[in-house]
């Protein structure tokens, strides 16, 4: 929907994409897969040419093979469900390890493999930005990950994260 997609529909869609990534594209861990690929890019040259101008040169860059894009983020429902689904897969893949070890590994996975692949945009701004940010931070922290908030809204992000932690303790 334009304003809200029901949670069961979101859950079905996320699981369907995960299954297709596994069965049709060969990504063993679906949305949680950490595979990378080389892409061609243009970048500024490291040196100026004879005329003193920096030119564009061809290069390659290693990027995650699976990017997650929600072009109409709205309330953040899809991105939240993707995060939770990836966490479920991560836990399943690390079954048999101690909770402490799973938490340590998850805290390595989140900044290295998760946050770099999650992208959301919203043109209509139906839902307030900070509400969506709060929901996504809460989803990641609920999984046990510690998130360093390193953007312009640092204090606001920390305030939301703290509020969500308190809510989770009461739940």
Describe this structure in words.
Helix 1 packs across helix 2 (77-93), helix 2 packs parallel to helix 4 and helix 4 (129-142) packs across helix 5. The protein starts with 6 loop residues before the first helix and ends with a helix. It contains five helices and four strands; from the N terminus they run αβββααβαα. The model is unreliable at 150-171 (pLDDT under 50). It is globular and about 60 Å long. With 171 residues, the chain is an alpha+beta fold. Helices cover 47% and strands 18% of the residues. The strands form two sheets. A two-stranded antiparallel sheet has the order 1-2. It has a two-stranded parallel sheet with strand order 3-4.
The share of residues in extended strands comes to: 15-25%
Taking the alpha carbons of the first and last residues, their distance comes to 29 Å
From the spread of the alpha carbons, the general shape counts as globular
For the biggest sheet, the summary is: 2 strands, antiparallel
Q: What string, H for helix and E for strand, traces the elements in order?
A: HEEEHHEHH
Identify the strand order in the major beta sheet. Answer: 1-2
How many individual β-strands? 4
Mean pLDDT: 82
Radius of gyration: 19 Å
Helix share, percent: 40-55%
Question: Uncertain segments of ≥5 residues (pLDDT<50)?
Answer: 150-171
Question: Number of helical runs?
Answer: 5
Structural class: alpha+beta
């Amino acid at each position: 929907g334009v304003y809200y997609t029901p949670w069961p529909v979101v859950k079905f869609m996320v699981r369907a994409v995960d299954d297709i990534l596994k069965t049709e594209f060969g990504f063993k861990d679906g949305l949680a897969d950490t595979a990378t690929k080389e892409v061609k890019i243009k970048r500024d040259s490291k040196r100026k040419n004879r005329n003193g101008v920096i030119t564009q040169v061809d290069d390659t860059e290693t990027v995650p093979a699976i990017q997650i894009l929600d072009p109409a983020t709205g309330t953040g429902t899809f991105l939240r469900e993707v995060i939770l689904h990836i966490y479920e897969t991560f836990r399943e893949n690390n079954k048999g390890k101690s909770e402490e070890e799973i938490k340590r590994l998850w805290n390595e996975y989140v900044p290295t493999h998760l946050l770099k692949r999650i992208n959301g945009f919203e043109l209509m701004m139906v839902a307030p930005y900070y509400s969506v940010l709060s929901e996504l931070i809460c989803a990641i922290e609920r999984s046990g990950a510690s998130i360093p908030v390193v953007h312009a809204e640092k204090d606001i992000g920390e305030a939301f994260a703290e509020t969500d932690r308190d809510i989770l303790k009461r739940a």
